[in-house]
Amino acid sequence: MIVYAILISSFMIAYPFMKSSASYMSKPIQQNNLLHPTECRPLQEKPQTIQKLQDNANIIFTMDDGWETQFTKGFQILKDRGIKASIAVIPTKIGTEGYMSLSQLNTLYSSGWDLMNHTNTHRHLANLNKQEQKKELNKARKWLNRNCFTRASNIAVYPYGSYNQDTLKTLQEEHYRSARTIKDGIERNDIKKYEIRTINLLPSTDISWVKDQIDLAIKTKQTIVFTNHRFDNKADKAQMNFDPEKFRTIVNYVDSKKNELNILTFSEWLDLKEIK
């Protein structure tokens, strides 16, 4: 009985320390669903099986705004082919109706997707003064970094394609790496890093024409940055929806050409082009 009493007493003394140690060994404490940058852990990504070659064409799939269908439909279609993409995130929209949750963004990021900076509240940058533009961009970057989405937080995507000379100066002064426009077309090899072109996939987009553009990029060894918004088989008034099956056809065609091109995220493309 004396030995039993001693053991109980020892446990009662050690329990607070054991509880504290268990807490210390657990995952980082979350505050308001945001992780501090110092608590971010480097991700162990699987190496890409396709060799990235400088003299190949490049295909980049991007999606704007963080709509939920980009996760439920776009992500699944690309995942079936082992392809990663890049999402332009609006922090103030995350977790609201029709948009992705923070958990879904974490799934994308841990799968190797880029989460890019689409500004904090998605305003026309050209309608703002320089200080307001800086605030919109940097608040979004801070949010991405605070949530450990650091890989592409310094890559901007202009809301509505709206930007001006103040925007370009701000990006340079604030050390942003690159920015994507909505200017339509294949991205040429004489890259203007803050004015990257794209091919917008719209309800009216002809799939045969898209295939021709992919073949042209392969022939000329240039880059195509595709852009999508919501995925739905019916076009909306804003013409922002794209039929998931048409998207699957494009993805499958790109995958069939993977020996002739690089399929990259936006940050991987910048790495390949040595754009810092």
Considering the chains and any ligands shown, give keywords for the structure.
single chain; 276 residues; eight-stranded parallel β-sheet; disordered N terminus; globular; TIM Barrel; two-stranded parallel sheet; alpha/beta
Largest β sheet strand count, sense and barrel closure: 8 strands, parallel
Order of helices and strands: HEHEHEHEHEEHEEEHEH
Morphology call: globular
The fourth-level CATH homologous superfamily is Glycoside hydrolase/deacetylase
Strand runs, count: 10
Mean pLDDT: 87
Topology summary:
Blueprint: H1 2-25, E1 57-65, H2 68-80, E2 86-89, H3 102-110, E3 114-117, H4 130-146, E4 155-157, H5 165-173, E5 178-184, E6 196-200, H6 207-220, E7 223-228, E8 230-231, E9 241-242, H7 244-256, E10 261-264, H8 266-272
Parallel strand pairs: 1-2, 1-7, 1-10, 2-3, 4-5, 5-6, 6-7, 8-9
Briefly characterize the structure:
This protein is of the alpha/beta class. It contains eight helices and ten strands.
Structure overview:
The chain has a single domain, classed as Glycoside hydrolase/deacetylase (TIM Barrel, Alpha-Beta Barrel). 38% of the residues lie in helices and 17% in strands. It has 8 helices and 10 strands. The strands form 2 sheets. Strands 1, 2, 3, 4, 5, 6, 7 and 10 form an 8-stranded parallel β-sheet that branches. Strands 8-9 form a two-stranded parallel ribbon. The termini are far apart. The N terminus is likely disordered.
